[in-house]
Amino acid sequence: MTSGELEQFVTGLGQPKFRAKQITEWLRRGAPNFSVMKNLPENLRTGLDAAAITLPAQIEKKLESSDNQTTKFLLKLLDGEVIETVLMRTSYGNSVCVSSQVGCAMGCRFCASTLKGLRRNLTMNEMIAQILIAQWELRSDSAIKPNGDANNNDVSHIVVMGTGEPLQNTENLKGFLEYANAQMGISWRRMTVSTCGIVSGINDLTEWGRPVNLAISLHAPTDALRETIMPINKKYGIADILDAAFIQTEKTSRQLMIEYILLAGINDSPENAEALSELLRGKNVMVNLIPMNAVSEREFAAPSNNAVHRFQDVLIKNGVHTRIRRERGADIGSACGQLRLGDKNEK
After folding, report:
1. Is 178 exposed, middle or buried (0-12, 13-18, 19+ CB in 10 A)?
2. Any idea which residues carry the catalytic annotation?
3. Which end of the chain, C or N, has fewer beta carbons within 10 A?
4. CA 96, CA 155: separation in Å to the nearest integer?
């Protein structure tokens, strides 16, 4: 609700207008229900719980990684669909990996997100809810383990890298990011949108003009190889994707991120690294090398550490900025490529 709509709602319950402001403050902190709003009269809290909900998603299940740095939330939506969201606590802040769709239609052969296809787009509010739920978790953490640093109790970074293809849902995506910037104070430069290469969507981001980071899930250096693992490449080839991406990053003065999942025996050879270098040499890019994370339904495997470092060495030799991404939460199925669509019919 807008502030005006919320005022109208609470006065309709026989309450003074200032209650709307109190409720808004709780909503922006991610309150899971009205019972936690202790500065409201008990009869109002009871009435609100009977008449409304605070968020269009509720925690169905919560998983913690063994190092206590990563939390995965299974969130149930109002229509019963279940999505996954990940909170990552790092030395540079708290990052939330946001899902943009219920499932995914892209069909990438190494990814769990697309196993059950696409159900629907997430609404702007369902994406906002993922951030607010993580925010509430962080505030709860601080109450249990106070650390004296308020910045450690807020979401500071957003990566739209969860389930779904964000650029098939651009209007809701943009509304969500606008809200996060305006209402939660998260800097545009701390937001990253990842795409498998929807050129029309990249062009839309360019026209939108907000200085968000763009990440391209490339995963192969040639069209012939990429088409075998990423069906989208039959519609949008690598050259067209990179051309559109560099226009966007030049306009926003950001560095383009290239995501490259290494699949043993498929795309991890020194020859593949040389071909990738040819594409990116001299460009303002950062290549994130990601050894394949286990997905039981997929036949691919991660290469050896030696093969990963050999691949990286070739890129460095050719002047391409690169790093091996430290994956978080693989033990709870929350690392890159592991997020999936829950089944609302499963118990």
Report:
1. middle
2. 84, 336
3. C
4. 7
Q: Compute φ and ψ for 291, nearest 5 degrees.
A: -55, 135
Estimate to the nearest angstrom the gap between the alpha carbon of 224 and the chain centroid: 28
Separation of alpha carbons 320 and 323, rounded Å? 10
CA neighbor of 287 nearest in space, from 220, 339, 198? 220
Q: CA torsion 16→17→22→24, rounded to 10°?
A: 140
The per-residue pLDDT for 68 is 84
| C-alpha to C-alpha distance for 260 and 215, rounded to whole angstroms | 10
In angstroms, rounded to a whole number, what is the distance separating the alpha carbons of residues 64 and 82? 18
For the chain, give the number of residues.
Answer: 347
d(CA 305, CA 294): 15
Distance, in Å, from the CA atom of 241 to the CA atom of 202, rounded to the nearest integer, reads: 8
Q: Quick: pLDDT tens for 30-86.
A: 999 999 999 999 999 999 999 999 999 999 999 998 888 899 999 999 999 999 999
The pLDDT score that the predictor gives to residue 274 is 98
Residues of the chain with pLDDT under 70: 141-152, 294-296, 298, 327-347
Q: What is the pTM of this model?
A: 0.90
Chain-centroid distance, C-alpha 86: 8
DSSP string of 233-263? GGTS-HHHHHHHHHHHHHHHT-PEEEEEEE-
Q: What is the greatest pairwise CA distance in the chain?
A: 71
Q: How many helices (H) and strands (E) does the chain have?
A: 10, 12
What Cα–Cα distance (Å) separates residue 302 from each residue in 58, 290, 298, 336? Answer: 34, 9, 12, 12
- Spatial neighbors of 238 by CB under 8 A, at least 6 apart, are 197, 218, 220, 221, 222, 223, 226, 279
Tell me if 279 sits within 8 A of 316, measured CB to CB.
Answer: no
